[in-house]
Design brief:
InterPro entries: Plipid/glycerol_acylTrfase (IPR002123). The protein is α/β, with parallel strands linked by helices and 190 residues long. It is built from eight helices and seven strands.
Length: 190
């Protein structure tokens, strides 16, 4: 049902999904999503994953998973985290990957606003969980969701953080991604 619904919604909205790699790259990975400038990116990504029949999760404040609408949030892949407590999020994520396979959405910018540099959590999560990184982006000018370009774990463990950022930066520059709110995107990834 989700496959049909995801396909229908994207079609009605005029969006298409372009895979850069095997669809099975989406089974088990840290999904690096950039640019992150608007909440609509998450919904579009969810519809793309529904269309492709792949499991998608996102870390969210537990207030959203405990609220009256928490069932919907969990149904959309929300994993609640108590942000008032100091959490070892990297190891928490690694333990989640021990239980099941899924793509975990991480927006390294950490906010929808312009930032001078990325947070490193996505890198540490991939290293600790021993999973690949897969790149994703929504191009709002062309109405294309790009998915599937994989940086295998074997490469991640043999590259420096700076080399990984360069590889990611080159990917986003190659496809000339146009975010929803361009002034909130810093294409100089560091």
């Amino acid at each position: 049902m989700k496959k049909l619904l995801g396909s229908l919604i994207l079609k009605l909205m005029g969006w298409k999904v372009v895979l850069h790699g095997d669809v099975d790259n989406l089974n088990r990975c840290i999904l690096v999503v950039a640019p992150h400038t608007h909440n609509s990116e998450y919904l579009l990504g969810n519809f793309a994953y529904w269309k492709l029949g792949k499991p998608l999760k996102i870390i969210i404040k537990d207030a959203h998973t405990k609220a009256w609408y928490g069932g919907i949030v969990k149904g959309l892949g929300g994993i609640g985290i108590d942000r008032s407590q100091k959490n070892d999020l990297v190891n928490f994520v690694a333990k989640q990957f021990e239980k099941e396979d899924f793509s975990l959405v991480i927006t390294p910018e950490g906010t929808r606003s312009w930032v001078p540099k990325w947070r490193k959590g996505f890198y540490h999560m991939a290293m600790t969980a021993k999973v690949p990184m897969v790149l994703a982006a929504g191009d709002f000018k062309r109405k294309i969701i790009y998915l599937g370009y994989q940086i295998p774990f074997e490469e991640i463990q043999n590259m420096s953080y700076e080399e990984i950022l360069k590889k990611i930066s080159d990917y986003y520059k190659k496809y000339d991604i146009h975010p929803k709110v361009p002034e909130n995107w810093n294409p100089e990834i560091s």
